[in-house]
Each structure stands twice: as structure tokens, then as C-alpha cells.
Amino acid sequence: MDDEKEIFLRAIEIESLDERQRFVDEVCGSNRKLQARICELLREYDAPNSCFSEPAARFDFANNGSES
Fold first, then answer.
1. Which is deepest, 22, 42, 46, 65, by most CB within 10 Å?
2. Is the pTM of this model over 0.70?
């Protein structure tokens, strides 16, 4: 599983922060760029007054940091 959106959406279903981190570590494997991006999204998701209170269509999941 290396689709950023899919990983993020599955991760936010996990309530325990420790279990969530283990999940992200496991699915991202050695892809540190993907792991960092997912962790960044999760921090924003968990923050008070998060931008995630806005409609999801505003987020660009297509650009997952794999720029040429």
C-alpha cells in the first residue's frame, strides 16, 4: 500500500496514537518521504482548528512528494 490518501484515511480510523504510528511505520516501510508526509497530515488532522474541518476536496493527494 503506497497510496497516500488510502494510508491516511486508514490511519485516522485508528484511535490509539501508538497503534496509528505503528501502522504508518509498517505500511510506509523504507519510504521515509511517504512516512513523513503521512505523519504531517496526521499532525494537522489531530490539531485543534485543523484545516481538516474544511471539505476534503481542497486537498491535493495526487502530489505525494514524488516529484521528478
1. 42
2. no
pLDDT of the chain along its 68 residues, tens only?
659 999 999 999 999 999 999 999 999 999 999 999 999 999 998 887 766 655 555 556 666 555 54
Q: Which of 67, 66, 6 is nearest to 34 (CA)?
A: 66
Which ranges constitute the DSSP H helices of 1-68?
Answer: 4-11, 17-28, 32-46
- Helix-helix angle 4-11:32-46, to 10 degrees: 40
35: cell is 512516512
The CA distances from residue 6 to 2, 17, 20, 23, 65, in Å, are: 8, 18, 14, 12, 15
Q: Where are the domains of the chain?
A: 4-50
